[in-house]
Amino acid sequence: MGLLVYGSQGRTFDIEDRLLAHLRVVFMNKLRRNEPFMFHRSSDSGMFSVWVHPAVPMMFQFSGSRPPTINRNWVETLMIEAGGANGLRVVPEPAGAPEA
Q1: Which end of the chain offers a freer environment for a tag, N or C, measured as fewer CB atoms within 10 Å?
Q2: How many CB atoms lie within 10 A of CB 9?
């Protein structure tokens, strides 16, 4: 289980390593384009939503020793979600999709 560390106060969110690796690609690409977005995620303690913006410090911390392979189709789907009016909500990973 990895961590998304968000904001200057270091708020942490537990996120499974495979999903976290895909979110890192989406966040990096959106922020590189200067496209802030809202990120929504359910957790054991409820739902959280954060505004993802280049001015907000973030860190992706992985618990595994090897990086997960990236499913390009999942990244593309998550990018579309992030660009939508409601922001990024995690959708299930497509089965049998190409990996990078």
Answers
A1: C
A2: 7
Q: Is the pLDDT of residue 100 over 60?
A: no
Which helix (H) or strand (E) is 28 found in, with range? helix 17-32
Which tokens sit at 22? 């895909």
Residue 65: what pLDDT?
83
> pLDDT digits over 54-82, tens only?
999 999 999 988 888 999 999 999 999 99
Question: Would you put residue 87 in left (φ > 0), alpha (ψ -120 to 50) or beta?
Answer: left
Q: What are phi and psi of 47, to 5 degrees?
A: -100, 140
Q: How many CB atoms lie within 10 A of CB 12?
A: 12
47-86: burial string, b at 16+ Cβ within 10 Å, e else: eeebebeeeeebebebeeeeebeebeebbebbbebbeeee
Dist. CA 76–CA 25, nearest whole Å: 10
pTM: 0.89
